[in-house]
């Protein structure tokens, strides 16, 4: 297990069309953007900027694998001071990292495409409208990680949620990933007005991890 500090740091969801530009992608050696193996573990420090509260820790680890719709998926267990336990299922495919939610009523899983990998600068996917989409902002990002500069990928997730009072919540997640390790930083920006007035609401910083493959 490695204890680390990063200067720079879930999850995404949605579905829709994809736009693929011609820019070449960075050639990473890692086979998987988020490595999946039983026993893998990540621990994050979560800081809330939007309201006064002490920092929280958020831990997720892979406890087991299972077969879901003829596909091998990995089961994550999540813990924090505010959440006793949550269970999520993920899978790596040829196009990247997916989150699966199994619906017992229709006996089918909902597929949420989270991290496209391999990817290209400027590539857009999961686009449903002008406000809801994910863009690969930078595939050659310099990240200070474990006392050295490493290469990472910056994903920007944009979303707009309607609120019950008729207003909207504009959300933008800035997600830094090192392929072969996973997400190392996730900053969430929010606004009740528009995309130009967003403020930093919360941040998750990877502080510990263990990778078995």
What structural class do helix, strand and pairing data support? mainly beta
Q: Could you name the CATH class?
A: Mainly Beta
CATH architecture: Beta Barrel
- End-to-end separation in angstroms reads 13 Å
Reported by name, the CATH topology is YmcC-like fold
Main beta-sheet annotation = 14 strands, antiparallel
Give me the Rg, rounded.
17 Å
Which runs of at least 5 residues are low in confidence (pLDDT < 50)?
A: 5-26
Q: Which helices and strands, and how do they pair?
A:
Elements: E1 2-3, E2 17-19, E3 41-48, E4 56-68, E5 71-80, E6 86-93, E7 96-103, E8 108-116, E9 124-127, E10 133-145, E11 148-162, E12 168-178, E13 182-191, E14 199-210
Antiparallel strand pairs: 1-14, 2-9, 3-4, 3-14, 4-5, 5-6, 6-7, 7-8, 9-10, 10-11, 11-12, 12-13, 13-14
């Amino acid at each position: 297990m490695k204890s680390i500090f990063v200067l720079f740091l879930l999850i995404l969801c949605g579905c829709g069309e994809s736009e693929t530009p011609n820019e070449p992608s960075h050639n990473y050696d890692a086979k998987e953007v988020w490595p999946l193996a039983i026993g893998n573990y990540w621990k994050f420090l979560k800081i809330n900027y939007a309201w006064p509260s002490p920092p929280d820790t958020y831990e997720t680890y892979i406890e087991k694998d299972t077969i879901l719709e003829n596909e091998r998926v990995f089961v994550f267990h999540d813990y924090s001071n505010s959440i006793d336990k949550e269970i999520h299922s993920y899978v790596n495919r040829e196009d990247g990292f997916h989150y699966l939610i199994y619906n017992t009523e229709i006996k089918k899983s909902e597929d949420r495409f989270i991290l496209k990998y391999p990817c290209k600068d400027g590539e857009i996917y999961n686009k449903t409208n002008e406000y809801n989409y994910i863009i690969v902002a930078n595939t050659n990002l310099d990240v200070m990680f474990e006392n050295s500069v490493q290469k990472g990928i910056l994903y920007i997730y944009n979303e707009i949620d309607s609120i019950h009072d008729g207003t909207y919540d504009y959300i933008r997640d800035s997600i830094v990933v090192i392929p072969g390790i996973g997400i190392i930083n996730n900053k969430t920006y929010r606004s009740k007005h528009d995309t130009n007035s967003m403020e930093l609401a919360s941040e998750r910083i990877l502080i510990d991890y263990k990778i078995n493959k």
